[in-house]
Each structure stands twice: as structure tokens, then as C-alpha cells.
Amino acid sequence: MLLTGKKNFLKTADIKGGEVITFVNEGEWITSKVYKYDDGTPRQDFYIKVMIEGEERDLRLNVTNRTILVEAFGKETAEWVNRGATVAKEKVMVGGKRMDTIVLTPITEEEPAL
Q1: What is the pTM of this model?
Q2: pLDDT in tens, 61-102
Q3: Each residue of 28-55: pLDDT tens digit?
Q4: Which end of the chain is more exposed for a tag (fewer CB within 10 A), N or C?
Q5: Which of 15, 99, 101, 100 lies closest to 63, judged by CA?
Q6: Which residues pair with 17 in a beta bridge?
Q7: What is the CATH number of the domain that holds 64?
């Protein structure tokens, strides 16, 4: 999947808490043209398309959310398509500052979210 054009990112400011997202695609690793790791190598981020409240959005999954989703749905992200998660907003320490972040809780019922 080629990600081009302007992105419609899901941000913490868009979240009230309790919303349900549905994964639309299997996602993709993208090399940042702006952000770098401490050693100077470009940062790799995992982006996945989600549907929330009838709108398709792009979501960058941090390590914590990726780990939670892998534990619930498995390592193959193609198997996440049409599965769901509940969205929450929590304050965490990032670079010495308390910031809002998106936290996902997978919906692991027998029937995937649609």
C-alpha cells in the first residue's frame, strides 16, 4: 500500500474516550523524512488506517499499542482488518513532559467489529 498525499491522522485532540475503531488495512512501516533516532538514523513508524465514527483516519501505532494488538490479534497485521479496539486517552511521560496519548483496548469477542 502506498501512502501518498495529505494524511488525515487520528490525534488525541479528536478522542473523547470510549470510541471504537476498526482496522481498515494491514498498515505499513514508513521511514520519517523529519524525525531521527539519537544515532541519526531515520525513525521508522507504523501507520494503519482505521475507521472511527464513519470516517477513515490514519493512526500511528506506538510500541505499546503494537504490543497490545499483537498479543490480542497476532503478529500478522492482515488478520487485524475488520477487527476493532476501544480508544482511550491517557497522560504519559514523553521527553520529561506529561502528554496525552492514545491507548487501545482490543475487542476480542468471537465476532470482529465491523
Answers
A1: 0.83
A2: 999 999 999 999 999 999 999 999 999 999 988 889 999 999
A3: 999 988 888 889 999 999 999 999 999 9
A4: C
A5: 101
A6: none
A7: 2.40.50
